[in-house]
Design a protein that fits this description.
Blueprint lengths: L1 H7 L4 H7 L5 H13 L7 H10 L3 H7 L4 H7 L5 H14 L5 H10 L2 E4 L13 E4 L4 H7 L6 H4 L8 H11 L11 E4 L2 E4 H9 L1
Antiparallel strand pairs: 1-2, 3-4
Length: 203
């Protein structure tokens, strides 16, 4: 069917463009793929965005910019890790402030427990059990915002989840000097030494 419609050519374009907004996702995706096969170049931004959304074209969504932000933010909550990572990366490239809080929330929700030596635990010579993020895409995206995320990210240095602390440190690397004076934050029954850690991350 797709090849047949593509074979008809330009006469089917108006119908396919209208179908990009159908309530049925299969219809929307099908229409976008046929338009792609026709090498259709939309003149209207809403068609351009609709096609990019249905084809999961994150590169195109980055180029579209602000109009794509809401859709990209919604994908931060999906169960597909690849889509979540791609959406976070695109949001970081676009740099729209609307995405800061959703990216912070995404960074906080990611976590898994893993054994790894960690020298930042005061009073302990044994490796700590740290919760690490399986993906640092949200942290990388936030780091592209620079100082504008400082207010949102600094409080995470006091989070009891050490993985979240580490992700926050990754974001703050670009302006590590601003947080050097924050000496110690409690993490469970231990203390997380920021001065040494920040210095090592900033180098």
């Amino acid at each position: 069917m797709r090849q047949m419609l593509a074979g008809i050519g330009p006469p089917v374009v108006p119908i396919l463009c209208s179908s990009l907004f159908d309530s049925n996702q299969d219809v929307r995706t099908f229409s976008a793929k046929v338009l792609g096969a026709l090498k259709f170049v939309p003149s209207e931004d809403e068609h351009r965005l609709a096609i990019a959304v249905e084809l999961r074209d994150f590169v195109e969504m980055e180029k579209i910019g602000a109009p794509a932000v809401d859709q990209l933010i919604s994908w931060l909550q999906c169960s597909d890790a690849h889509m979540e990572d791609s959406a976070a990366a695109a949001l970081g490239s676009i740099g729209d402030v609307r995405a800061i809080q959703p990216l912070v929330a995404t960074m906080k929700k990611q976590g898994r427990v893993a054994d790894k030596p960690w020298s930042g635990w005061r009073g302990s010579s044994s490796p700590g059990r740290i919760v690490y993020s399986p993906s640092d895409s949200a942290a990388k995206a936030l780091s592209k915002y620079g100082h504008s995320v400082q207010t949102d990210v600094l409080p995470l240095l006091a989070d009891k989840n050490a993985g979240i602390c580490l992700a926050a440190l990754q974001v703050l690397r670009a302006f590590a000097g601003a947080v050097r004076r924050q000496l110690l934050f409690p993490v469970d029954d231990n203390y997380f030494s920021l001065s040494t850690t920040i210095t090592s991350l900033a180098n």
